[in-house]
């Protein structure tokens, strides 16, 4: 009896904490799509977990509640993918699109079909559709995993340690996969395993992030203290090294160039490079790199008029057309097309 109560409490605790975390990410400032997707994901998993917990301890639960839990399960795969997608887009500084409309729209369409064919009247179909729901979830995990693999340079290259944001990203993705495996293995284990796995993953992730935050803060304090000792001559020398490396190695053409990688090329700390760029040039790392890319774009626009804007953006190191257009307009005050047209008119006889 006591063991059963403890099991119920531990399982329900994961669902409750998931709801509180969802509220936190929904209300987090500034508002970002990645945080909203993570909040929605935690909410969907919490609903699915709560359904599993109550059904395990009360098999006579109303079928409407079972349908509600299975419907929430349809959202877990797409929300995992969308969280990974928008998190990586923010790292690449891509303009956030409205991909969520299509992915979540498909899920809500299937959920609407479920309302037309309720569990209470079509129990046979619902009992077998779980295989399709889990396959749907798995396909989205594969798509998210592919995006993580393609962005591995941004996430890891040149970093002495994994950042808290990357750790959270990988933890969420791994937890989604762990919960799916737990539900798939219920025929061989127990129905409550999915709820327990969610509780375990939530608490482990929170603890790891808290410990990681303390370590990162302590390290940043040390690096900040070291940066204060940077002399004027050393700062100018670092600027020369940065410009030399950028020109000689054409680092700006790498779409996955990060502050960590640039710092590694000059044998400096990330915080030192960032401080020098801000103090001496009054520029952020992104603006510093984008100016090199825009200079390259100007040459291509004038010397290779047959290239379309997409190819120009790609050859200059931009990850997307939208990022290219935004950077070009910000730095030159005009669009790439108007710059090409104006320059062509000036040089024509």
From TrEMBL:
<feature type="transmembrane region" description="Helical">
    <location>
        <begin position="6"/>
        <end position="26"/>
    </location>
</feature>
<keyword id="KW-0805">Transcription regulation</keyword>
<feature type="domain" description="HTH araC/xylS-type">
    <location>
        <begin position="243"/>
        <end position="342"/>
    </location>
</feature>
<feature type="transmembrane region" description="Helical">
    <location>
        <begin position="38"/>
        <end position="57"/>
    </location>
</feature>
<dbReference type="InterPro" id="IPR018060">
    <property type="entry name" value="HTH_AraC"/>
</dbReference>
<protein>
    <submittedName>
        <fullName>AraC family transcriptional regulator</fullName>
    </submittedName>
</protein>
<dbReference type="InterPro" id="IPR009057">
    <property type="entry name" value="Homeodomain-like_sf"/>
</dbReference>
<keyword id="KW-1133">Transmembrane helix</keyword>
<feature type="transmembrane region" description="Helical">
    <location>
        <begin position="167"/>
        <end position="185"/>
    </location>
</feature>
<feature type="transmembrane region" description="Helical">
    <location>
        <begin position="69"/>
        <end position="88"/>
    </location>
</feature>
<keyword id="KW-0472">Membrane</keyword>
<feature type="transmembrane region" description="Helical">
    <location>
        <begin position="125"/>
        <end position="146"/>
    </location>
</feature>
<keyword id="KW-0812">Transmembrane</keyword>
<dbReference type="Pfam" id="PF12833">
    <property type="entry name" value="HTH_18"/>
</dbReference>
<feature type="transmembrane region" description="Helical">
    <location>
        <begin position="191"/>
        <end position="211"/>
    </location>
</feature>
<feature type="transmembrane region" description="Helical">
    <location>
        <begin position="100"/>
        <end position="119"/>
    </location>
</feature>
<keyword id="KW-0804">Transcription</keyword>
<keyword id="KW-0238">DNA-binding</keyword>
